[in-house]
Protein 1
Amino acid sequence: MSYVDEVIEQVVAKNPAEPEFHQAVKEVLESIRVVVEANEEKFRKEALLERIVNPERQIKFRVPWVDDNGQVQVNTGYRIQFNSAIGPYKGGLRLHPSVNLGIMKFLGFEQVFKNSLTGLAMGGAKGGSDFDPKGKSDREVMAFCQSFMNELYKYIGPNVDVPAGDIGTGAREIGFMFGQYKKIVGAFEGVLTGKGLSFGGSLARTEATGYGLLYLTAEMLKTNGIDIKGKTICVSGAGNVAIYAIEKAHQLGAKVVTCSDSTGWVYDPDGIDVAALKEIKEVKRARLTEYKNYRPNSEYHEGRGVWSIKCDIALPCATQNELLIDDAKALVANGVTAVCEGANMPTTLDATEYLQKNGVYFVPGKAANAGGVATSGLEMSQNSERLSWTFEEVDAKLKNIMVTLFHNLDDAAKKYGFEGNYVVGANIAGFEKVVNAMEAQGIV
Ligand code: NDP
Ligand code: 2IT
């Protein structure tokens, strides 16, 4: 059996009941097969793939907190420090009831290659909890965040591990966590990114993932002779990534006609009103049912359905496995040109394959959504030099990172004979740098 197949089999056997982790490992190992086969004997001897698929450390802890009725609640906290070959651990914290060990590991594993692709010195990590911030009071959210940090602080630090936001973790949660870290450790340091602007946050970090997604999408299309201007786009999600993807798409002259949350979706034929969306989601923390009050011409539907709308470009920006094989078929039947992932692993493996086979340009999340963590890297740089750059400076650096990142993965795909396969290109380009650093550092 080939080394790649052997390690995939081991991962499935040794990590039962972690389907998302299996899925992420399969995608990466399948697409670096060509590199592994060229070095099979050496990689096997060094157990390189076994080392790549096993986190350096996984931390799981109890998070007790008191709700507004005086009742004690207990959640589970996680931090997966996956790989530190190229820099301190870096990656977000997800707060969502679906969080479990397998989801944390898939996200941590993806982060290793994503961070490598940014060109910055960041290792890969992920963390979070099965806590649901939805419907909680600010005091309850603070109580949870403080308790979470009471344990997490032991394992993080500006040169050790720097967490950030993800689903359910925005500026409010990062603020509470930063305050508690500072209180315990007694040091004001850049231990988290996505901080408020008054205490070390970076301008453009809020916008970065969505903006970066559009910078990369526009560059990928341009490279293939297509102008993004005038294109119709379907976006899923209505959170941080989705909102700023829609905003930048409109700035670039495209029209986004959909968005969604976990209960329903909106179709607005005149283009999504970003100001209304921000007010509903960022200010009121309300549901998308409210959107119709702002835009009587729009439609609201319960359930899922964004991918049934005809579009040129699809940008899944909600969560993992939200674009399924039937959605891929509907998109292809409607003539879609490109699918670029704003979320982490939103497309299932069979849907990805179907899109690629039908000539759709497909850019995986670890490349397309890397603008968020890249700008977190820029926040770390600003914290280190105790300076704040202007919005324009950060945005220009972000754009440059996304354009360079796209050409690096495009070149890697070409070099190995997979021209236009951006999944293979991203995985190989991300993998090569990490492996190189691991080999140089010995068996550690
Ligand atoms: P938010 O919490 O801000 O928004 C998530 C959005 O997705 C919400 O609209 C949410 O709806 C919707 N959603 C639909 N179904 C689900 C589900 N089953 N689980 C969770 N959310 C669901 O998160 P972000 O926008 O920050 O993250 C979106 C995706 O982008 C995630 O995959 C994340 O890992 C990825 N990402 C985020 C980065 C960042 O910088 N924030 C960077 C790179 C990737 P509802 O409100 O109803 O729950
Ligand atoms: O998935 C991701 O890249 C993030 N949630 C952002 C991580 C970060 O450290 O900014």
Note: The longest helix spans residues 391-415.
Protein 2
Amino acid sequence: MNLVPMSNRLRFAPSPTGELHVGNARTAIFNWLFVRKFGGSFIIRIEDTDIDRSQKRFENQIFNDLKWLGLDWQEGPDIDGQLGPYRQSDRTENYKVQSQKLLDKGLAYNCFCTEKELFIQAEEAKRSGLAWKYPGTCRTLSREIIRDKIAKGCPSVVRLKVRSGRVQFQDMVHGEMDFSSEVIGDPILIRSTGLPTYNFAVVVDDFSMKITHVVRGDDHLSNTPRQVLIYEAFGWKLPIFAHLSTILGEDRTRLSKRHGSTSIQHFREKGVLPEALLNYLTLLGWAPREDQGEILEKNQLIEYFDLEQVSRSSAVFDFDKLYFFNRHYMKTVKFSKVIDLALSFFSQEGFMKEMDSKLKTWFELVVQAFLPGIDHLSQITNKTKSLWFFDGKASVNTERVCQILTNSGAVEVIFELNVQISDPKRDLIKDWSVILEKIKSVSGQKGKNLFHPIRVALTGIDSGPELEKVVSILELGSSLNLPRPIKNCRTRVSEFIEAMTLVGITPPSSDL
Ligand code: GLU
């Protein structure tokens, strides 16, 4: 007796017919976590039998997205193993060989019913309010008739002879599953084109590739009884099944395009960090113990993850929670990673170019200052627009700024700011706290009434990082050779005052 336990072999089997979405990515992650925790091999198998819809670019994108998420695998189209090939389109010979075995044993048969005939039957059943299943018309055709039809070139499919009785299997998530075979029409194994159906190919491949655990979305739960019947017909041992719950949108309907884009590529382009997405997706349908917390890094996810604790109820995809995780990881991952990503967004906008060390120090200051105000890094360019585009006139005319200017003492604050920074030799960065104190004592304003007017005069808007940081960024930035130059504090304040004057707001002293 072989006492060595068979090593775990889990697979992720995407169809390259579209982008990788969060649902399938979660399936990949759960497979991967299981293998990383208990050992074994994680295998990628590309299910590309749908020739019309499968595309190489989607296949490449799936690989890139999985790698970006931090997953790795031991076998796949790009890493050869003993049990390849790893694309179904390269395995078609085996499907033919295996289906012939079932035909030879009398457990499968050629069916010559045309699609039109079957369609008419299904429509009739529908009209009478009955559920339709294939009635087994060709089950009992004699060998002679079959031979004759094949010789005449009549197209046929290969169907499994579904046995009577119950179909049962264990599911790690859903427990004991029990279906009546009465409702299952003899499924097609091989189409008239010679290509296998999903149910047949997946069973033949999972068996041939020695897959021990089939972990996939529960949209396949209803396919599993058919697959179990195919395993039984071959006399093959069933793998362990685990069907993961559906992911829903916030309105509790199946997550789809209506809820916004949920492809991995989309989140990448938004500048969501892979660490955040990996962490968040793992919590869709699985929860760590309360004392373990929810912010979990890769090694903790591997340590705590438990496939047996996966919930059978649907998980709701919560964008806000994902961004909460992302905000956390933007603060904790290596800063150079955040900088590189931020730079790619600034370069796209034409705000930044290649950096020397002086530019880099300034850029780090910008990112550091604006990071707390964003959910994901693609927002950073918009958040920092006030640095590059300052227009006093346009700003004075916005409702929000007008409102601030009518607040008590706002105009005094701005004019005093102008007085305090008027000496061109004064170092505004070094002296900022002194300047602020002076404006405070002269105007008698504090808190919001002090800071808001200063902020709008410097940036044109009423929100942003602490003023001290803004002043440093503007003063240092204005001395750099940037693709889009930045105006310094003095220029901004005098432009702002000029705009105020144009709309009739004058220095308080002139009223005296
Ligand atoms: N190609 C199938 C899908 O993408 C795989 C299903 C399975 O894992 O069996 O849904």
Note: Residues 13-15, 47, 202, 216, 220 surround glutamic acid (CB under 6 Å).
